[in-house]
Specification:
heterodimer, A: alpha/beta, Rossmann fold, six-stranded mixed sheet, four-stranded antiparallel sheet, 7 helices, globular, B: alpha+beta, six-stranded mixed β-barrel, 10 strands, elongated, binds adenosine-5'-triphosphate, binds magnesium ion, transmembrane (chain B), Lipoprotein-release_system (chain B), membrane (chain B)
Chain lengths: ~220, ~425
């Protein structure tokens, strides 16, 4: 069952001069797939990922997820879609520094409003347990180490049980040991919960362990 | 949109930046406090001046206009011709209102009228010793005058009734009495413009609290003033009227003018200088208040703008995790509103305290006005206005940064 399909995606940057970053990119991703996006620096991986994330709407082509056509939707509709169906883990473990670990994880779920605050808190503890961070739940998020923050970010990405979790070099700032922890969490999510994972990575070991690798070069997919 | 979460985020932002929040709040507080103090004080001054001016002026005054600008006989006889007249002199006119007492009796019958007092007014000199002091004498029926101006209440020493039993008595204004150095029981001479002298006795000293009255005017019996002016018993120069409703007086003045063909003047006209002062002071309140609020608004705008710039990363994360533009607007607008409401409430409190302190501060206006402390009005209306102004300014000032925040492109920030 496919959960994502991108067809004929083209993207241009106009600064400093007109330049085509993505050239006719088409591919599909199946449910529960653990996929990594690799390629030389500057080949357009991040650009593609942010289009897939629905945050970048300035592209040509058609993007579908969960059987829903996302191209052409308004920003607010896309925000609602992200909230429910997508989770993100970024290279820099972006957490809200003034909030506690628990609050950071809870916020997207409170926004979704599917569960009561009490249930959301329970679920947040579950997700934190999954990444082995439940012991730090009440700490201010700015007081954690990089690897700990990255795990909290993963728990946050998982809170609404999204169909797809995306990461732009989620292990880029982590050491070998922490990278392995993150990798194992992703693998578990993909294979046990059947959630789809799409990550951009430069780490060959990380990529090797994935179900599928898409390799890009100069704005095109060269191997998938 | 889920206000609850936006509120929670806004609260957390405010609490982690307590100092900034406080500074933004104090801007509003200062603006609103000054607004309250200014409007309470200036409205107080306006009301005080109006009241004291209105106290001492009739609602309607009927008098005869004496003018030397009247057509000469030759102009009337030969209107088309080219007439040259040298040194035209005023006619020897009497300043009196014919049938004055009859008019008084008629007006008194009107149910809208509170009281009518006929008067004979004249310039006089008061002599006690060699130096003449200029002033006015008003021949009145003191009981009727009392009905209009509560003379009895204003008598500081002596008594008003003494005038009734003392045909040559006068009631003198406080400042005039002080200038002449006379007390109740003292005698002094008055000189009329035509040179008649009369020895009179001070039977009472009164004070309106207004220099233009207390420093010049004396009350005497009508018959005595008629006598020194060598006029008959029906001689009346002014008729003062107080109405039950002061607003109705303005129309009533016109009616009387048409009916009796004498000049009339209503209280608004008589106090036009005060009224203009009112307008100027009111305009001042508005200008200064707007300035203060604009300054406070800019303060909030600046701080919220900085806040948005500092929080770009957070905004990007919120958007990435599914918060819509309007949620972001709410987060920042709520912060402004909280700052505005708390700042304004504190401002009202401080404004009230300052107004209260002002209202009990002794204030010496000299002889010009009888006022012991600064006149201040406490009116809930001003406080509601202050709160509304504070909140509206902060909403306006907070909206632009909030909108800017909602327009932030998360991609640009998240890819680093
Ligand atoms: N905002 C932008 N304006 C103009 N050009 C841009 C912009 N962002 C990226 N580019 C260019 O687009 C190309 C692709 O960038 P992208 O960030 O997608 O590369 P990447 O594959 O993620 O590289 P890396 O592995 O180093 O992260 C690069 O040549 C980059 O210079
Ligand atoms: Mg990249």
């Amino acid at each position: 069952m496919k959960v994502l399909s991108a067809s004929h995606i083209n993207k241009y940057f106009y600064e400093p001069e007109k330049f085509q970053v993505l050239k006719n990119i088409s591919f599909e991703v199946r449910k529960g797939e653990f996929l990594s996006l690799v390629g030389k620096s500057g080949c357009g991986k991040s650009t593609l990922l942010y289009i897939l994330s629905t945050m970048d709407t300035d592209y040509e082509g058609i993007l579908e997820m969960n059987g829903e056509k996302l191209t052409g939707k308004t920003q607010d509709q896309l925000a609602a879609f992200r909230n429910e169906h997508l989770g993100f883990v970024f290279q820099f473990h972006f957490l809200l520094p003034e909030f506690t670990v628990l609050q950071n994880v809870m916020l997207p779920a409170l926004k979704l409003g599917k569960y009561s605050a009490k249930e959301v808190e329970e679920r947040a503890y579950q997700k934190l347990k999954l990444v082995d961070m439940d012991g730090h739940a009440l700490k201010q998020s700015s007081k954690l180490s990089g690897g700990q923050q990255q795990r909290v970010a993963i728990a946050r990405a998982l809170i609404n049980d999204p169909t797809i979790i995306m990461g732009d070099e989620p292990t880029g700032n982590l050491d070998k040991k922490n990278s392995e922890i993150v990798f194992n969490i992703f693998k578990q999510i993909a294979h046990e919960n059947h959630q789809t994972i799409i990550t951009v990575t430069h780490d060959p070991d990380f990529a090797k362990g994935c179900d599928r690798i898409i390799e890009m070069s100069d704005g095109q997919i060269i191997k998938s | 949109m889920n206000i609850q979460i936006s509120l929670q985020i806004a609260k957390t932002h405010l609490l982690t930046k307590k100092k900034q929040t406080l500074i933004a709040m104090l801007g509003v507080t200062f603006g609103i406090a000054m607004f309250i103090v200014m409007i309470s004080f200036i409205k107080g001054v306006n009301k005080f001046l109006e009241d004291s001016a209105l106290d001492a002026t009739p609602h309607v005054r009927i008098y005869k206009e004496i003018t030397s600008n009247h057509p000469s006989l030759i102009e009337e006889a030969n209107p088309k011709a080219f007439n040259v007249i040298h040194h035209q002199l005023p006619k020897n006119e009497l300043a009196n209102i014919k049938n004055g007492l009859q008019i008084v009796a008629n007006i008194e019958k009107d149910p809208a009228v509170l009281g009518v007092s006929p008067q004979i007014g004249s310039q006089v000199f008061f002599n006690k010793g060699p130096i003449p002091v200029a002033g006015q004498i008003a021949g009145v029926d003191i009981l009727k005058e009392d009905k209009l101006y509560s003379i009895k209440r204003r008598v500081k020493s002596g008594s008003m009734e003494a005038l009734l039993s003392n045909p040559n008595g006068i009631l003198m204004g406080t400042i005039l009495a002080r200038n002449l150095n006379v007390k109740v029981g003292d005698k002094l001479t008055i000189t009329t413009p035509t040179g008649n002298l009369k020895l009179v006795k001070v039977v009472g000293i009164y004070g309106f609290g207004i220099q233009t009255v207390d420093g010049v005017r004396c009350y005497a019996n009508m018959s005595m003033v008629q006598e020194i002016l060598q006029k008959d018993k029906s001689y009346v120069t002014d008729i003062h009227i107080k109405m039950k409703d002061s607003q109705a007086a303005i129309d009533y003045a016109k009616v009387l003018k048409n009916q009796y063909r004498y000049q009339t003047q209503d209280w608004a006209e008589a106090n036009s200088a005060f009224m203009t002062g009112d307008k100027i002071r009111n305009a001042m309140v508005i200008i200064v208040s707007i300035t203060l609020l604009v300054v406070a608004g800019f303060g909030i705008y600046n701080i919220m703008n900085m806040n948005v710039i500092n929080k770009m990363k957070d905004i990007a994360i919120l958007k990435a995790t599914g918060f819509a533009g309007k949620d972001i607007v709410a987060v920042f607008l709520i912060q402004s509103i909280i700052i505005g409401v708390l700042g304004a409430c504190l401002g009202l409190l401080i404004g009230f305290s300052l107004s209260y302190l002002l209202s009990i501060t002794p204030f010496d206006a000299g002889d010009f006005l009888a006022v012991k402390t600064f006149p201040v009005i406490f009116n809930i209306k001003y406080y509601i206005m202050g709160l509304a102004f504070g909140v509206i300014t902060t909403i306006l000032a907070g909206y632009m940064p909030a909108r800017k925040a909602s327009k932030i492109d998360p991609v640009a920030i998240l890819r680093g």
